[in-house]
Amino acid sequence: MPRVPAPDVAWSGSGDLNTAIAWVDAAQRIVVLTGAGVSAESGVPTFRDAQTGLWAQVRPEDMASEPGFRADPAGVWAWYEHRRALLQGVQPNAGHRALADFARRHPGRLTLVTQNVDGLHQMAGSEGVLCLHGELRGNRWLDDPRGCCDMAHAEAGAPPRCATCGNLVRPAVVWFGESLPIDILGQAEEAVSACDLMLVVGTAGAVYPAAGLAHMARRIGARVLIVNPAPSELDSTAHAVLRGPSAEVLPLLLGRDRPAGDTPPAAAPR
């Protein structure tokens, strides 16, 4: 049988890309954790890239924390409107689409967990995405909503507010100093505890507790495979690393771009 060619993809570990494909095909439960690198391949500025230009002199903590928002709600809201504007016209790339396509072809086998807030996975067609850090395009109330707080009828402004109590509307993202959504993190941990393969894609592996999911997968005996063009802090945790852009590697790994009739070799024992 023909083997999958990948001249631009480097492998670190015992085996090659076809070994990784065999791992995917043998896995009954796959968890994928994606990070900013996946979105960057679609042209989405990273968090720090978004601080260029008019925002070059601001501190991240001032733009992405509850104290910063309370101190300058108009300024922080303007910065998030700027970040939302940067998403206009951005489309999912081949990596996003490969994940969505795999999930459609294999119902129940793949759980997608993301640190990204741009919604590109959902735009590509992925369902049930576990967004650890929230969603940039969404909003929520700054303080616990009272009975008078109705998002559909929030008073227009920058930011909008409840016309009755003055409760402010804020972006639905996780800020510095805030905990991840307990239910979302719990679902991610539950999926990892049941998986036999975890793909860590496009993340430096420096942000916790998200990065801790890879360590958890390794502890429970699942294979851990990293897809990233550059070294990450999780490389030593992985069984193998595929060096390459996710938009090139994931379609090969998950089946969209495999040659017709290709059958990967049987998976090697762990």
Give a description of the structure.
The protein has 270 residues and is of the alpha/beta class. It folds into two domains: 10-43 and 91-133 and 180-254, Rossmann fold, CATH 3.40.50; 49-86 and 138-173, SIR2/SIRT2 'Small Domain' (2-Layer Sandwich), CATH 3.30.1600.10. It has ten helices and nine strands. The chain has helices at 17-26, 36-40, 60-63, 66-71, 73-86, 94-105, 120-124, 182-193, 212-219, 246-254; strands at residues 10-12, 30-34, 110-114, 130-131, 134-141, 169-173, 197-201, 223-227, 240-243. The strands form two sheets. A seven-stranded mixed β-sheet has the order 1-9-8-7-2-3-4, sandwiched between helices. Strands 5-6 form a two-stranded antiparallel ribbon. Strand 3 (110-114), helix 7 and strand 4 form a beta-alpha-beta unit. Helix 6 (94-105) packs parallel to helix 10 and helix 8 (182-193) packs parallel to helix 9 (212-219). The radius of gyration is 20 Å and the shape is elongated. The two termini are 24 Å apart. 39% of the residues are buried.
